[in-house]
Amino acid sequence: MTSFDQPVSPVDADRTIASAIAFVAAIVIVGILIFMGKLVLDHFRDPGRFPIRSVVVEGVYEHIDHDMLRHRVMAQAERGFFNLDISRIQQEVEGLQWVDKAYVRRVWPESISVHLEEHKAVARWGDSGLVSNNFKLFFPAKSDTTTGTSVNAYLDQLPMLYSPERRHVALLKLLMETEPLLEKVEAPLTGISEDERRSVTLTLKNNVKVIIGHRLISERINRFADIFRSYVAPVYDDVVKVDMRYTNGFAMARKSSSANSARVD
Question: Which of 99, 133, 158 marks a domain boundary?
Fold first, then answer.
């Protein structure tokens, strides 16, 4: 059997050539567009053409170090307006002491806006920590260079919380519940702590301890408030400890008592 190749018509040849030319032209156009796009992108990414010239800080704060804040932001700002890593700047700012939250954005044509929310400490945690009104535990430096005062002096005004399990959320909630219950007690509440068994102890002015235990906490605190004026207040300066774990009474340890305790049912 003999086969014969079909001759290519002039029309088909022209179509093939036209397709090839169109394909090459498309490649050239795409290449030109990519090249031009890169030139434009490089233009906008050039830090020298779009430098950051100012940092605008918003928000009310007292303890955040403004110079350190500016240093951390400007260290990233060297990359220029369009190269800014907003997430990185936010992380850097939120890593500063006393910063709770930071919101960072670009402001055309040459600025960065930083809105700050500062921790509002409402209690101490152990020797060096603080608990905020948002139930966050944080550990600031020992000195506050923004005000020129000692943070320790500031801490001394706050109630002390402590638990070996770092149950700061539970203890702050207990503090908030306890303060209204002790309104009629004429000795300020200065701290709440719990031990490994979660047995609660209140600390009042002059380091007087009130042992509450791990159950019936609100009931026992209420009972202490009821007996305070009649039994504790008259001898308060001599009181060391009041134990409220008794069903119908309490035990009170005094500095000058020979028996060192008294119980009232």
Answer: 158
